[in-house]
Amino acid sequence: MASSLGTLIEWYDFYIFGSLAVVLATKFFPADNPTAAFLSTLATFAAGFVVRPFGALFFGRLGDIIGRKYTFLVTLLIMGFSTFLIGCVPSYETIGFAAPVLVLILRLLQGLALGGEYGGAATYVAEYSQPHRRGYWTSWIQTTATAGLFISLIVILVTKTSLTAEEFDGWGWRIPFWISILMVGVSYVIRRNMKESPLFAKAKKEGKTSTNPLKESFGNKLNFKFVLLALFGAVMGQGVIWYTGQFYAMSFMQKVMNIESAQVDSMMALALFMGTPLFVLFGWLSDKVGRKPIMMIGMLLAILAYRPIYKTMYNSANMQGKEIAKGGLIEKRTGKAHESIPKDSLITFHTEKVFTDGFSLKKDSIVHWSPNGPIMKEGKAEAPVIKEAITVNADTRWLLIFMVFIQVVFVTMVYGPIAAFLVEMFPVRIRYTSMSLPYHIGNGVFGGLLPAVATYLVTSGKASGRADWFLEGLWYPIVVAAVCLVIGTIYLKTKNRNLDMDEV
């Protein structure tokens, strides 16, 4: 519980940025190009993933020399303070390009901290576990990533409902970042009183710990072969499936389907809540039938199902052919957005349509208005910024929840057993370092780049006029998972023997 709580809080800190990506794009980047601002936010989000392998090397080395407990105490504090400070950074309008630079630096610190956290927590729990129950106990650590995302969505929803839209947009979005400092304080007090891992303590007492974990992990050809096998045969595919089933699903509903963000948050939270117990189920099952069969089947199902799932999701919110309900059309001018130049202003026009099937469509157009009326461009009133959001009806809402839940099932199949799988590949003396690097390359690089790469592919597909442009982003996770599936099926052992490398 102590290990899981601390790791959960670190994931909350790390993912609150992704959960608020749509909002942060308007705060820390120029607002004149919303698509470019959102892609820049996703790139900053991805930067935290890219540096995770470096955190794995740095803190993994400390964990194998000094100990598991003290290392993940340090990572907890770095993560907590970095998250809190992101909530304090002034907006782009206030300090210009210094805003995205500061956020990027803090995001990199978050990535380094997380690179050291996961390997320490998973190793710590595994070294306390009985060999025949290692999959079950480490699966509790596996729940923390999804639980951290779930809690981030809940905190955002509570904050949004407690404030007006103007208050949340103005300063309320900072509250989820500030809350992390309280959560980190509680977790630090709990972790400070934990004892060191018994296997590591025994190895240290007997003088069997490594003096150069990096050299032993990656300079030894046999061990390095296992590092590469772990990355390309399991973790790479697990990483893209994790982020597709959770972050890309959320981004797809918000940016591609244009569903109102609060409704997306509530649907994601419910799907994650229903799916999270399956991490423990598949971790327990991996103790019975082995790690490989469960992980490989999860990858295969995801590869085959992604395109049908996302096509169903997209078509469920299709607005064509819908009939407006009687009295369901409201159009009004909401007033000046702000003064742009003397005697000119930006006027916001709000249109809301309610349809007979319960759907609604809200659209805000900002028009440059002069004393003589709207400024025309090519015969039309210029509207440089358009905000559009769909609210789906109850039937569609439950369909989307189910579609996301299916993706979470794939996530639990590949992610639930992965910690026990990685721990059992490497000996105690270099375990922290050896397991952390492939895990964070697979998740941090291959998985972390998914939102930005997939969004770019969708944008390019739409610009090229492809009929199924909204499915283009799925090629990235499908190809990566397929490569991993082939390598893992051929080279990984068929059944787990529930043994440490030290016991073989």
UniProtKB/TrEMBL annotation:
GO MF annotation list: transmembrane transporter activity
Cellular-component GO terms for this entry: plasma membrane
Topology of this chain in the membrane: Multi-pass membrane protein
Main location group: membrane
Pfam families: MFS_1
Keyword match Repeat: no
Keywords from the UniProt entry: Cell membrane, Membrane, Transmembrane, Transmembrane helix, Transport
Keyword Membrane in record: yes
Protein name in the entry: MFS transporter
